[in-house]
UniProtKB/TrEMBL annotation:
<keyword id="KW-0963">Cytoplasm</keyword>
<comment type="similarity">
    <text>Belongs to the adenylate kinase family.</text>
</comment>
<feature type="region of interest" description="LID">
    <location>
        <begin position="131"/>
        <end position="168"/>
    </location>
</feature>
<dbReference type="GO" id="GO:0044209">
    <property type="term" value="P:AMP salvage"/>
</dbReference>
<dbReference type="InterPro" id="IPR000850">
    <property type="entry name" value="Adenylat/UMP-CMP_kin"/>
</dbReference>
<feature type="binding site">
    <location>
        <position position="165"/>
    </location>
    <ligand>
        <name>AMP</name>
    </ligand>
</feature>
<dbReference type="GO" id="GO:0004017">
    <property type="term" value="F:AMP kinase activity"/>
</dbReference>
<feature type="binding site">
    <location>
        <position position="155"/>
    </location>
    <ligand>
        <name>Zn(2+)</name>
    </ligand>
</feature>
<keyword id="KW-0547">Nucleotide-binding</keyword>
<feature type="region of interest" description="NMP">
    <location>
        <begin position="35"/>
        <end position="64"/>
    </location>
</feature>
<comment type="pathway">
    <text>Purine metabolism; AMP biosynthesis via salvage pathway; AMP from ADP: step 1/1.</text>
</comment>
<dbReference type="InterPro" id="IPR007862">
    <property type="entry name" value="Adenylate_kinase_lid-dom"/>
</dbReference>
<dbReference type="InterPro" id="IPR033690">
    <property type="entry name" value="Adenylat_kinase_CS"/>
</dbReference>
<dbReference type="InterPro" id="IPR006259">
    <property type="entry name" value="Adenyl_kin_sub"/>
</dbReference>
<feature type="binding site">
    <location>
        <position position="36"/>
    </location>
    <ligand>
        <name>AMP</name>
    </ligand>
</feature>
<keyword id="KW-0067">ATP-binding</keyword>
<feature type="binding site">
    <location>
        <position position="158"/>
    </location>
    <ligand>
        <name>Zn(2+)</name>
    </ligand>
</feature>
Length: 220
């Protein structure tokens, strides 16, 4: 497989280290990182038709419907920078979205190369996320166990005050993980059947995980 051709999807619960792996994959394979959050923000900022629709739902605190999410993503995948591949993050979230993505790709003579699924035990995820601390002033992030600040509660970078984000407390985290598991479990089966799923032990170090990812991509 040529280095510049990679069509991949990232799956994994919050705290599984997807962000770190995504950054490494896009650097090595030179493909755009496509996250639904970024697409929403870009469309809303540019005031596109799709953006206006999405904003309507978001302003009411509602989830953006599947159909609209699919339209936003497939619109993004038609841009020139995706001709040589892409890394999708946060999409698909449901079987419907996965089927629509397959349909879109096959209509364009393409298909997914690989679905990267990062697995981490729930208690480990909770420890990882609940231990995060962020600086109020400069936004630097620390971890009470893994990357502790030199002085407790104080940012090494700027001396600002460290705090725990609201959605990082244990209860919220556990809830986020449960929602992810119930939403995404069916997708894992869906991609397993298609023979494109690759599982990774997200509890290894970032570099070890990335070595596994590269092996899996090269094997495809």
């Amino acid at each position: 497989m040529a280095h510049n051709m990679l069509r991949a999807v990232l799956l994994g619960p919050p705290g599984a280290g997807k962000g770190t792996q995504a950054a490494k994959v896009i650097e090595k394979y030179n493909v755009p990182h496509i996250s639904t959050g970024d697409i929403f923000r870009a469309n809303i900022k540019e005031g596109t038709e799709l953006g206006k629709k999405a904003k309507g739902y978001m302003d009411e605190g509602k989830l953006v419907p599947d159909e609209l999410v699919v339209n936003l993503v497939t619109d993004r995948l038609q841009k020139d920078d995706c001709k040589e591949g892409f890394l999708l993050d946060g999409f698909p979230r449901t079987i419907f979205q996965a089927e629509q993505l397959d349909k879109f790709l096959s209509e364009n003579g393409q298909k997914l190369d690989i679905v990267l699924n990062f697995k981490v035990r729930k208690d480990v995820l909770i420890e990882r996320i609940a231990g995060r601390r962020v600086c109020k002033s400069c936004g630097a992030s620390f971890h009470v166990v893994n990357v502790p600040p030199k002085k407790e509660g104080i940012c090494d970078v700027c001396g600002g005050e460290l705090f725990q984000r609201k959605d990082d407390n244990r209860e919220t985290v556990e809830n986020r993980i449960n929602v992810y598991e119930s939403e995404t479990a069916p997708l894992i089966g869906y991609y397993e059947k298609q023979n494109v799923l690759a599982n990774f032990d997200g509890e290894k170090t970032h570099n070890e995980v990335f070595e596994d990812v590269v092996k899996a991509i090269e094997a495809k």
